[in-house]
Design brief:
The structure is a single chain. This protein has about 140 residues and is an all-alpha fold. It has helices at about 25-50, 65-85, 90-110, 115-135. The chain is elongated.
């Protein structure tokens, strides 16, 4: 086989490990990444200053610091799953759906503390779950 400029041989193929994600995979990965970042920011605010979040008479009352740590852990898991989706890892679709569902429930329970932020993160979680489930079905 003849060499071409750049040192590669003519007729060789690139390994299939270098596939770029596109379409719904890209959207889901970015939605998971953004949701995770927002969850970490929310968690840091809860850990750093408990006076930001108040919800009198809420049935699922936790210490705001505990809520903060839960959001940080969930946010890190969302970022890891989103990175896996963007890199095309096989485990990432299932992990993205599972962590997105956990985040969705946590945000739903956090609505009385900070409604608009929670609803925005819930929408990101739902769209990521939808995109991953839709892509898996096709």
């Amino acid at each position: 086989m003849a060499e071409i400029s750049g040192g590669e041989r003519k007729g060789t193929t690139q390994p299939e490990d270098r596939q770029w994600v596109s379409g719904l995979h890209l959207f889901a990965g970015l939605a998971l990444e953004f949701s995770g970042t927002l969850s970490i920011v929310m968690g840091a605010a809860g850990i750093g200053q408990g006076a930001i979040f108040r919800a009198p008479g809420y049935a699922y009352r936790f210490n705001v610091t505990a809520w903060g740590w839960m959001h940080v852990v969930i946010g890190l898991a969302l970022i890891a799953a989103g990175l896996g989706v963007l890199l095309g890892q096989s485990w990432a679709k299932g992990a993205g759906v599972a962590v997105g569902a956990v985040s969705l429930v946590a945000q739903f329970m956090f609505i009385p503390y900070y409604p608009m932020w929670s609803i925005i993160v819930m929408v990101l979680d739902l769209t990521a779950i939808w995109a991953l489930a839709r892509f898996s079905a096709t």
